[in-house]
Structure formats: C-alpha cells, structure tokens
Design brief:
Elements lengths: L5 H31 L4 E3 L18 E7 L1 H4 L3 E6 L6 E3 L20 E8 L1 H6 L4 E2 L1 H11 L7 E5 L9 H5 L11 E2 L1 H9 L4 E4 L13 H8 L3 E4 L12 E7 L7 E9 L2
Parallel strand pairs: 5-7, 6-8, 7-9, 9-10
Antiparallel strand pairs: 1-12, 2-3, 4-10, 4-12, 5-11, 11-12
Helix pairs in contact: 4-6, 6-7
The structure holds zinc ion.
Length: about 270
C-alpha cells in the first residue's frame, strides 16, 4: 500500500481544488458565451397555438384574440386564454397531493441546474409502456457518475418525433388508454433521494401513458419536485454536461403553466 506523505496530500488537495475551479470557470464561460454564440442554446419548448396535442378530454385548450392592430390602432396587441397544462408546461407540486407549492412559489434556485438526460429510446421503441426503472438510473450513474444534487433529470423517449401528430403522440388503444413511456415510482424515489430539482419528459406525462393512478406524480410532486412535460426534441441533448434554465410563467396560485426551457450545451 502506498503511503501518501504530506506533500502528496497537498497535491491531491490542489488537484481537487483546481477541478472545482475549472468546473466553475466552465459554467461561468458557458453563460458568458451565450450572447456571442460561443455557447449553443437549445430551446426545449414548443411554440403555443391551438393545435398542440392536448390531454384527452381537454376540449378548449388555447385561444388568442387580436385586441389592437397596426392599421386601426397604430400598435399590435392580443389577449389569450389557455389551460395551465397544455403544450410544454410545468407541473407545480400543488398539482397533485400531497404537494403544496404553487408555480409562483417554486424556489428560483430549483429552476437552474445541471441537465441529466436518461436515454430510453431503444426501450421505448420496443415497448410503448416502458417505465424507467431504478436500475436504469443506476446504469446512467455507472457511466457518468452520481447524479448531482439540484439536477434536472430528463427522460428521452424519442416521443417528440411523433409531435404534433395527435394519434401517434397519445398512442391510444381501442379503449382510449394511452401508451407512451415514463418514469417508474422506484426511479422517482431514487431521484428524490439524490435530491434532484425536477423531472422532465418528451411525452404528455411523467407517468407512463397507461397509468391510472399517476403514482409518480403523487410521489415526486409530494417531495417538492416539479415536472416538465411535452418537452421538445431532446435528440441534441448530451447525457451530461448541459445546464438547464427553467422559466415557468409566474401565475399566482397556479397548479402549473407554460414554461420556457433552455439548455446551455457544453
Ligand atoms: Zn401537467
């Protein structure tokens, strides 16, 4: 067994410190590189209109009315109405019990975090009812290291390639039951233990489509996490190394709402 002397220990400490310093430097330069275009930014939100894939049963989803036009008024304004859970949106903990926090109350620090992408496109391609297992999360960790506290964990199922085709995206059977992949309760519990800030997916729901009890919603929103649903194409996202900025509409008392999600690429 090698004995680390005092100078050896110093070298180890310095190496650890410099890694930390480099990581911070990297994050700073990531942000600074945005205006110049040096840092690539992905917009993971869909533009909002009245033709997006809605949850089955949601009839009226979005409406925009022109209030003023350049021709008549010299300026252009509209008013709009929409569901809180429509298009790319955030579920606040208050959406399901025992969660309590409304969308405007989510701590700001929870809205910024390292992006963890768990790729299940192969599994989802074979089985539309696939649920990410806790073992799947551990497999990611074997490859990339421990999921950091404050991470925002996105499930990449490949479902975005079906958007905005209602039939293909909902994938309903003859009985109307939907079939798309999601997180399992065990995976959600492990991610809660890792102290992540939120979960996201490129499907209609964090729970798999056939779910009837929305078990993951209860568990993760109950633990104070938020959900990002109907995220746009995640195919360019690296499994690790991106930094996410989550900017939901600040609706007082809201159960959720439209969200803009940006990914700063490494
Ligand atoms: Zn929702």
């Amino acid at each position: 067994m090698a004995v680390i002397g005092r100078s050896g220990l110093l070298v180890v400490c310095l190496a650890a410190l410099s890694t930390l310093f480099m990581q911070n430097m990297h994050r700073d330069s990531m942000l600074e590189g945005v205006p110049s275009g040096k840092t690539r930014v992905l917009d993971l939100s869909y533009a909002i209109n009245d033709k997006l894939v809605a949850w089955p049963g949601d009839e009226k989803v979005f409406e925009a009315k022109v209030n003023a036009t350049i021709e008549k008024n010299g300026y252009f304004t509209r008013s709009f109405w929409m569901l809180e859970h429509y298009g790319t949106h955030l579920d606040a903990p208050a959406h399901f019990p025992p969660g309590k926090t409304t969308v405007d109350q989510i701590p700001v620090k929870q809205l910024f975090g390292p992006g963890v992408v768990i790729d299940v496109r192969a599994e989802s391609g074979k089985d539309a009812d696939y649920q990410l297992s806790a073992a799947g999360v551990e497999e990611w960790e074997k490859k990339h290291g421990h999921i950091p506290e404050g991470a925002i964990v996105l499930l990449r199922t490949g479902w975005a390639s079906r958007w905005p085709d209602v039939q293909k995206y909902r994938n309903q059977d003859a009985k109307g039951k939907m079939h798309f992949p999601g997180f399992s309760v065990e995976a959600a519990k492990l991610l809660i233990a890792r102290k992540v800030s939120g979960l996201g997916c490129d499907t209609l729901s964090i729970d798999y489509g056939a779910s009837e009890d929305f078990a993951v919603h209860h568990v993760s929103l109950g633990a104070g996490l938020y959900h990002l649903e109907n995220l746009a194409d995640l195919s360019e996202m690296p499994e690790t190394g991106a930094f996410l900025i989550v900017a939901p509409i600040k609706l007082e008392g809201g159960s959720g709402g439209a969200v803009r999600v940006f990914a700063l690429l490494p």
